[in-house]
Design a protein that fits this description.
By secondary structure, the chain is mainly α. The protein has a domain of 157 residues. It is built from eight helices and no strands.
């Protein structure tokens, strides 16, 4: 058990720099889009466009998370029911924490009038098809996904960063774009929204649920070998 949690600590430290970089890129992209729209349009119609973008990225995030979690567990333990249950819970819950719970709490801590919007409740038929595709992809293409886990996890982290930031902007917090004092606090909120939940989904859940996992560095849960 100690060896498992040692792996978790190491993986968390390794993934923090990638999370920070992804968050900075996402902030730069959203800030640029927002500033251009503010200059061109006096109304707040552009916030609605970002909200639609969030409703594309959140289901995509769920799909990527389900692919990663399912493929890692399926590679090491061929139990279909267990893999599907872990795949569902290990993607829906962390993605919810990452994309709206942590951003909502972070925004409220920073004094913003955040609106709590839970897609799984408000738009279940938007989320469930992407979840199903993620589960099936993780099962059917486990070898290909596992062998490219660095790429898949990188995509997962970037999509998560963008989704968390879009939630902040779409549901109550646009002030950071024009107030420099909010830039660093927003970066912290996005990093925390991405770093812990994504690592829970991609690393903690598979490690804690696999009955037997490889030792000695021959095969890693987050970077399996052929």
């Amino acid at each position: 058990m100690k060896a498992r949690w040692k792996i978790v600590v190491v993986e968390l430290s390794h993934h923090l720099p990638y999370t920070v970089i992804s968050s900075l890129i996402a902030m730069a992209a959203v800030w640029y889009f927002g500033m251009v729209q503010m200059q061109q349009h006096a109304d707040r119609g552009w916030v609605t466009e970002l909200r639609w973008s969030f409703h594309v990225l959140h289901p995509l995030h769920v799909c990527l998370s389900a692919i990663t979690t399912t493929s890692v567990l399926w590679r090491f333990e061929r139990k279909l029911a267990k893999t599907l249950i872990v795949g569902v819970l290990g993607s829906v819950i962390p993605c919810g924490l990452s994309d709206y719970i942590v951003p909502f709490i972070g925004g409220r801590i920073l004094g913003q009038p955040m609106q709590l919007h839970i897609c799984l409740i408000d738009h279940p038929m938007l989320i469930l098809p992407f979840l199903l595709v993620g589960l099936l992809s993780g099962l059917l293409f486990e070898g290909q996904v596992s062998d490219h886990s660095i790429f898949s996890h990188g995509a997962h982290v970037f999509v998560s960063s963008l989704a968390a930031l879009l939630y902040l902007v779409s549901f109550g917090f646009t002030g950071w774009m024009t107030d420099i004092n909010f830039v660093f606090p927003v970066l912290l909120v996005v990093v925390m929204a991405v770093w812990i939940p994504c690592c829970i989904s991609d690393i903690v859940v598979p490690i804690s649920t696999i009955r037997e996992y490889p030792h000695g560095g021959r095969r890693s849960v987050s970077r399996p070998s052929v």
